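Technical note accompanying the year-one report. For the benefit of new consortium partners, we illustrate the data format agreed upon in the data management plan: each record pairs a sequence with a structure-token string. No post-processing was applied to the example shown here.
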Amino acid sequence: MSLLRTLAVAGAIAALLGVSNKAQRKQEQPSIAFGTAEVSLGMTVEQVEKALAESARHIELMSDKHTALVRINNVPAPKGHEGQVTFFDGRVVYAAFHFPDAEAADQLAQEIAGAVENMDAKVCTVSNYSSHGTGGGLSQTIFDCGSKSFNVMITETLGHKERYTHVEITIGAIPRSK
């Protein structure tokens, strides 16, 4: 009887620890790294500024007072732009890390591998979009992987042989305007 009771108590403790670990994991907000700084959903403007400052970065608030560009310190524009953070009611609701534009296939492969490695879930839903018009074309593939997603965009301008490939990792969603 004591063996049965011991097993029951051990099972209850294991179940309690499992529920506790799930609750702790649920409380962790998705985050994106800018250098060594982690920006998470729900952070305040001040928390983001402090985290980025410790990683030699800062935000540049746009005129809408919600969107901020993440910039590397002491790198003049247009270079040094690493991504975007969007705030709503003073808290992060969306963040995107922009990989540098890929100039070669191996660089693009490394960026995509880095984006995949950065996903919380390894099972993703994939959406493909393509459009072409008088100004050129756009091809976009979005990988939704749980709390994070990554996006590969290829743009071509009509009349130019140049093709730009852009990879980004995102968390959250940009709120729709009222």
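Partners are asked to follow this layout when depositing records. Strands lie at 31-34, 37-40, 57-61, 67-72, 81-88, 91-98, 125-133, 136-145, 148-157, 163-172.
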